[in-house]
Every structure is written in C-alpha cells, then in structure tokens.
Amino acid sequence: MKVEYIHHSGCTVETEDYFLVFDYYKGDINLKNKNTIVFSSHSHKDHFNPEIFKWQEEQQDIKYVLSSDIEVEPGPNIYIMNPYESLQLDGVNIKSFASTDLGLSFLVEVEGKSIFFAADLNWWIWPEDSEEEKRQMEEAFKGEIEKIKGQEIYIAFFPVDQRLKENYSLGGKYVIDELKPKYFIPIHLWNKFNVTKYFAEEMKAYPTKVIEIYKNNQVIEIG
C-alpha cells in the first residue's frame, strides 16, 4: 500500500487496483487511473469540499461514499451512508460506524486488508469541559470503539489534535490498546506536525507502528 497524507485529515490509500480518498478538503492531490472511491465522513468544512465532484470530469467512473449529513442528491455513483450500514463497491467492503462529533467513521476492507478511518471519532476532552461532559464523552467514545473491536485492522487513521493539550493522546492510545492496528497514522493535525512526533514517542513501547507526519503530501510506503 502507498499512503499519502494530503492535508489535515485528508489522506489517500493506493493499492494495486484501487485508489481511496478520505476526507479531502484542500491540498495537492493526483488522481490515479484505478478504481477510485472518495469518502467524506461529514459536512464540516475541514472534512468535505464539494470540489471533489469536479473530479468526475477527469474520471467518469469515480464513486463517492458520503455521510447522510452532507446535503447532496444520491446518484448512480454517489452512495449515502448512515452509521452501522454496510456497502460493497467494486470488491471493496465498507462498514460505517458513528462519531463522537458529526457523521461517520469508516472501516474499509480492500485487497484483504482493513483500514479504519476515524474522521472525527475521538475522545474529545477539552480543558474547559465539566466533569459530566467528560464522563459522557468517555462513555460515548469507548462505546463506539467497543463496536469495532474484533476487527483485524491494518491501518488506523485517527485524530491526534494538539488543541486538546494534555488530553491529545487519550483517544489514540485507547485505540492502540483496544484495536491494536498494525499501523497508526495521525490525522486532524492543523499543520501542527510536531504532535505526531510526541505521540510516536509516547507509543514507542507498543507493537503498533505510529507513523510520524512531518509535512503535507508526505508519502508513506506500507507493507
């Protein structure tokens, strides 16, 4: 697999026959002449840009998998998903899960390997949160991860957001503990790449390989 970290939470995964795009909203991207599926997890502007539909001018058989909160009409190549649904496209198996913010997270099986794209599913504990808000968030996040447990995950894309300050690693560490992905790629970075270095250092004792992100359009060869 070849992964490219595009910008913020936008990433691509290229395999022998497929090209997957996750949560593109801006940055440099080069489409491939392969079976292409574009995923948009929710309507927030840092995860969805309607410009993605212009890519059909270049590649007519491109397919889109969108969360139901995105206001767009379904079409022959546009698929709308709610949480806890399944979809098969061109041999790619897609399962949707919920988020602790808006929209969906995705579990995608392609060429025998599973990719978990968390989008805005995270253990969002902000410094100003009340004890009750913290309790509710912990319950919601752990409950969602419990639904995903048991899946063998090859790559997990998951938020490591420095705005959470001392809580920046709570969700990522829990995912590594519970889901045990082979590779962990930080997203939702706001161009604060140093946070991935700190997280990789914090997780160095775990068997999961944490990929340090140091720039936009970083290419990562995996496997």
What is the structure about, briefly put?
The chain has 223 residues and is α/β, with parallel strands linked by helices. The protein has three helices and 14 strands.
Jot down its keywords.
223 residues; alpha/beta; seven-stranded mixed β-sheet; 3 helices; 30% strand; globular
SSE pattern, N- to C-terminal: EEEEEEEEEEHEHEHEE
Please tally the β strands and state the result.
14
Q: Helix coverage percent of residues?
A: 10-25%
The average pLDDT value, as a whole number, equals 97
Strand content: 25-35%
Count of DSSP H/I helices = 3
The rounded distance between the terminal residues' Cα atoms is: 6 Å
Quaternary structure annotation:
single chain
- Uncertain stretches: none
As laid out across the biggest beta sheet, the strand order is: 6-5-4-3-2-1-14
Give the class from helix and strand content and strand pairing.
alpha/beta
Characterize the overall form: globular
Question: Biggest sheet: strands, sense, closure?
Answer: 7 strands, mixed
The value of Rg in angstroms is 16 Å
